[in-house]
Each structure stands twice: as C-alpha cells, then as structure tokens.
Write a structure and sequence with these properties.
Layout lengths: L2 H69 L4 H32 L6 H8 L9
C-alpha cells in the first residue's frame, strides 16, 4: 500500500465519520428518547403477555396436580390442567392484545387510520369517492 493509498483511505474514513456525525445530529436526541419510550413500552407489553400466559398455565398445572393427588388419576389431571391453562392463557393474551389495540386506536389521531383501514376493506384511501 503506497502513501497515497493510505492518505486516500484516511481521508475517506474521516469523510465517512463526518457524514455519520451529521446524520446523528440531524436525527436529533428527541428521536432517541421517543425510541427508548417505545422500546420500554414494547418490553412492558411482552412481559404482560408472558405473565398472562405463564400464570394461566401454572394455575392449570396446579389445578391438575391437585385433582391427580385427590382422585389418584395421574397423569390425566395434569394433562387436562395443562390444556385448560393453555386455553385460558391464550384467551388472556388475546383479551390483553385486543384491549391494547383498542387503546391504541383511541389514542391515534383522527385522520391517521383511514389509509390503514382502507387496505383491509380492499379500497384505496385516495379513491374513496369512486
């Protein structure tokens, strides 16, 4: 590698660093805070959904274990409890997701959902008057 190649490489590297710094400044620190809030909200939602599912499954297993212990029907009580816990967990997760979607829909700006809903209805948002 010659001195010219090394100098050219260094120059291009510095230009790239400057462009990256300009892009970071242009982006601003506000978007970083908003992104952090969105990230935290996503973690909160995931933990809530996991807790809903986990508690329902644990309750089903414990109920099944109790039935097995009382009636001596091992393993059928635990299997039934797992299935009931799974069904209850899925129901809880769907209910929570529906509640969150309704809340997000209510919090959204009034004109912000027309385009999204038009794709579901098979219409183009710009061609609603046709």
């Amino acid at each position: 590698m010659s001195k010219n190649d090394a100098a050219d490489h260094d120059r291009r590297l510095k230009e790239l660093e400057q462009r990256l710094e300009q892009a970071r400044r242009k982006r601003g620190s506000a978007s970083g805070r908003d992104g952090a809030k969105a990230h935290a909200a996503t973690h909160h939602l995931v933990l809530r959904l996991l807790a809903d599912m986990g508690v329902a499954m644990a309750a089903g297993v414990l109920l099944g274990w109790g039935i097995d212990s009382y009636f001596g029907t091992r393993p059928w009580g635990i299997l039934a409890g797992v299935l009931l816990g799974l069904a209850a967990g899925v129901r809880n997760v769907l209910h929570t997701a529906d509640t969150m979607a309704r809340q997000a829909h209510e919090d959204a700006p009034a004109g912000g959902t027309a385009r999204d809903m038009s794709s579901i209805n098979g219409k183009n948002a710009q061609n609603d008057d046709e």
